């Protein structure tokens, strides 16, 4: 019963936040700070409705780190409500072009200045990446990327794709890892207090002087640091995965 009530409230909230966010986007289209404000519109009421408790362990420099490429693990659609609480100023996100057609949310996502990539068209995707690199270099704006490329559904950190790291190197900006505990595995929406989430930022990884040849090592370094952090947070919450190989987690 509680789950059904929450889903009804979340549906109403999603529509209301979408309308308000769309009005904001129409008033100042493509402003890079729209993304942060709209994220708060979705996130803060949603966390109360869902009964999730957030422990945000952010470094003092996180809100002032721009321009940078923020990389974060991606678990589920609930990430919108969890991560929306910490999106720093002038930060936009990279998403699939198909998001543009989701009623209210898709148009809001576009007007908020986020980057839509057509993954089915390599040429257009490459043009979007070049445009994003330009944004990083000249517009005092950071880019938020989920380097796994898809939701891991709480089964462990997936392999990272190259795009985020290539952008950071080409723009000469640091990479800032953001780690989220594996909340989807323990969240129980049938309870008033449905679960706890920890978000922790890691020290920025500089990319100055690196080239495309350094991307595999950069990916390995970032993946290892984030994986260790996620395991540490899950252990703190008593929700660690049993030992598994990467192949089993995938």
TrEMBL record:
E.C. numbers: 2.3.1.51
Domain of life: Bacteria
Signal sequence segment: none
Pathway the protein acts in: Phospholipid metabolism; CDP-diacylglycerol biosynthesis; CDP-diacylglycerol from sn-glycerol 3-phosphate: step 2/3; Lipid metabolism
Phospholipid/glycerol acyltransferase domain sequence ranges: 68-183
Claim: Transferase is one of the keywords in the record: yes
Gene Ontology molecular function: any one: 1-acylglycerol-3-phosphate O-acyltransferase activity
Key words of the record: Acyltransferase, Lipid biosynthesis, Lipid metabolism, Phospholipid biosynthesis, Phospholipid metabolism, Transferase
Reactions the enzyme catalyzes: a 1-acyl-sn-glycero-3-phosphate + an acyl-CoA = a 1,2-diacyl-sn-glycero-3-phosphate + CoA
InterPro entries documented for this protein: AGP_acyltrans, Plipid/glycerol_acylTrfase
Enzyme class, UniProt record, top EC level: transferase
Family per record: Belongs to the 1-acyl-sn-glycerol-3-phosphate acyltransferase family.
Entry note about domains: The HXXXXD motif is essential for acyltransferase activity and may constitute the binding site for the phosphate moiety of the glycerol-3-phosphate.
Name by which UniProt lists this protein: 1-acyl-sn-glycerol-3-phosphate acyltransferase
């Amino acid at each position: 019963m509680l789950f059904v009530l929450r889903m009804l409230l979340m549906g109403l909230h999603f529509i209301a936040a979408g309308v308000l966010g769309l009005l904001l986007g129409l008033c100042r289209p493509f402003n890079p700070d729209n993304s942060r404000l709209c994220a708060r519109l979705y996130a803060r009421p949603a966390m109360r409705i869902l009964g999730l408790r957030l422990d945000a362990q952010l470094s003092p420099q996180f809100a002032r780190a721009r321009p940078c490429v923020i990389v974060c693990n991606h678990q589920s659609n609930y990430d919108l409500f969890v991560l929306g609480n910490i999106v720093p100023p002038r930060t936009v996100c990279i998403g699939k072009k198909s998001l543009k057609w989701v009623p209210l949310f898709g148009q809001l996502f576009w007007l908020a200045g986020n980057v839509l990539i057509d993954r089915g068209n390599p040429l257009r995707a490459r043009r979007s990446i070049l445009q994003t690199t330009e944004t990083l270099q000249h517009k005092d704006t950071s880019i938020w990327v989920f380097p796994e490329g898809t939701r891991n559904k709480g089964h462990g950190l997936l392999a990272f794709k190259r795009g985020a790291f290539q952008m950071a190197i080409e723009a000469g900006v640091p990479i800032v890892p953001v780690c989220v505990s594996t909340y989807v595995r323990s969240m129980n929406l049938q309870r008033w207090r449905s679960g706890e989430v920890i978000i922790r930022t890691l020290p920025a990884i500089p990319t100055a002087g690196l080239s495309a040849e350094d991307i595999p090592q950069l990916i390995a370094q970032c993946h290892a640091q984030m994986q260790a952090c996620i395991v540490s947070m899950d252990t703190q919450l008593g929700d660690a995965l049993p030992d598994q190989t990467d192949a089993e987690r995938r």
